[in-house]
Amino acid sequence: MFNYSDKHILITGGAKGIGREIARQFLVAGGQVSLVDRDEAALQQTVLDLAQGDQQIKGFVADISDQQEVEDTIRQVEQQAPIDVVINNAGICPIKSFMEIDADTWQQTLDVNLSGTFYVCQAVARYMIPRKRGVILNMSSKNGLDAELGHAHYNASKAGVILLTKTIAIELAHLGIRANAICPGYIRTPLNYEVDSPEFVQQFAERYVPIERVGKVQEIAPIFLFLASEGATYINGQTFVLDGGQLAGQKPWPTLLKAMYPSAPK
Ligand SMILES: NC(=O)c1ccc[n+]([C@@H]2O[C@H](COP(=O)([O-])OP(=O)(O)OC[C@H]3O[C@@H](n4cnc5c(N)ncnc54)[C@H](O)[C@@H]3O)[C@@H](O)[C@H]2O)c1
After folding, report:
1. Which CATH architecture is the domain 8-260 placed in?
2. Which end of the chain is less crowded, N or C, counting CB atoms within 10 A of the terminal residue's CB?
């Protein structure tokens, strides 16, 4: 469906979860993919797994919360080929109640999710501007638009990503660069495997998500391929929510739903 055979796509946090699936789908579409991740072992494994056939994929170890490391890494990535699309996907989500959040957790979350995204956007834009073309796609979250308990630091960081993206969109559009933000709901990935049991996930989906299940990485990646494509050249500064309808409105009370749809198939 998409053809990225002449494009170089940089994905941060591409060693696992959603970023890994985005990388896989861009590779299937013929793209040259560079992954940046701080988890060296996972990065090596992902590159090995995805580099089948003549797929062009390379991994770069870096911590996006370190501006100097970002500058050095982007220089190396650019040396492979000019970056056409940058996907700022790396993020962390330590869960703590508002009253338990210590200064380190607050700072670390902001450093990775918001400052890291800023560092990468600025470093890549420096190369995109003289070429007068480029696409920036920033991973926010449903939590960037709507508060979730236990996530004050994460919610704040992801809300920041949305406004950062909108500002880039209005400042760099005249230089041929588009920027958009993507806001997934609950997606099953290594980010939450360790903390949420399958029973918890099932109950969460039944309680909050109109589609009544959580999302899969395969359902998030395609929007990145679309937003970076020729079909999306007039889409700029927007925020896309992929959450099974969670933010559309309160999930109806099951008793009321049953009353209104008494003969609905099970
Ligand atoms: N999974 C969800 O439910 C969900 C929902 C909404 C938004 N998101 C966002 O999507 C993105 C990916 O989430 P995921 O669930 O795939 O997470 P994940 O933990 O499975 O993968 C995140 C990747 O980012 C890397 N990373 C983390 N900090 C980094 C840093 N400082 N420098 C470089 N790499 C770093 C990790 O090593 C990992 O490979 C995150 O930004 C997350 O906030 C996830």
Report:
1. 3-Layer(aba) Sandwich (3.40)
2. C
